């Protein structure tokens, strides 16, 4: 998570050279840097998105892909704010 807004050098220093690079984004104005079970989208030499494929075994802030909503809320708590969404469900936010 600390790579968002960071320069690509920081990503490459941490993870090494990518396995693959492909055009990305709806306007094709970025590249997807693929590295095993995750990837970073880079625009203007800065990371602006991160993707984790389903096979990725790691955690992000204590959360694993496939965790329940309750497990995610518990791992990230306390939340910064919550509100009802258009469907009447709860939307939580952490900054």
SSE order and pairing:
Elements: H1 8-15, E1 20-24, E2 30-35, E3 38-43, E4 46-52, H2 69-76, E5 81-84, E6 90-93
Antiparallel strand pairs: 1-2, 2-3, 3-4, 5-6
Account of the protein in words:
The protein is of the alpha+beta class and 95 residues long. It has one domain (8-79). It is built from two helices and six strands. The chain has helices at residues 8-15, 69-76, and strands at 20-24, 30-35, 38-43, 46-52, 81-84, 90-93. The strands form two sheets. A four-stranded antiparallel beta sheet has the order 1-2-3-4, with helices on one face. The protein has a two-stranded antiparallel sheet with strand order 5-6. A hairpin with a 2-residue loop joins strand 2 and strand 3.
Q: Note the gap between the termini.
A: 12 Å
User: Which stretches of 5+ consecutive residues score pLDDT under 50?
Assistant: none
Structural class computed from helices and strand pairing: alpha+beta
How many helical stretches?
A: 2
Largest sheet: 4 strands, antiparallel
The number of distinct β-strands equals 6
Strand order of the largest sheet: 1-2-3-4
Determine the fraction of residues in helical runs and give it as a percent range. 10-25%
Brief summary:
By secondary structure, the protein is an alpha+beta fold. Helix content is 17%, strand content 34%.
List keywords for this structure.
alpha+beta; globular; four-stranded antiparallel β-sheet; 2 helices; 95 residues; 17% helix; 34% strand; two-stranded antiparallel ribbon
């Amino acid at each position: 998570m600390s790579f968002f807004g960071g320069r690509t050098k920081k990503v490459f220093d941490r993870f090494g050279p990518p396995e693959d690079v492909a055009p990305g984004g709806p306007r094709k104005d970025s590249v997807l840097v693929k590295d095993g079970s995750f990837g970073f989208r880079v625009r203007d030499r800065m990371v602006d998105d991160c993707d984790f494929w389903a096979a990725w075994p790691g955690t992000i802030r204590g959360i694993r892909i496939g965790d329940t909503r309750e497990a995610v809320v518990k791992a990230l708590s306390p939340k910064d704010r919550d509100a009802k969404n258009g469907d009447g469900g709860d939307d939580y936010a952490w900054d």
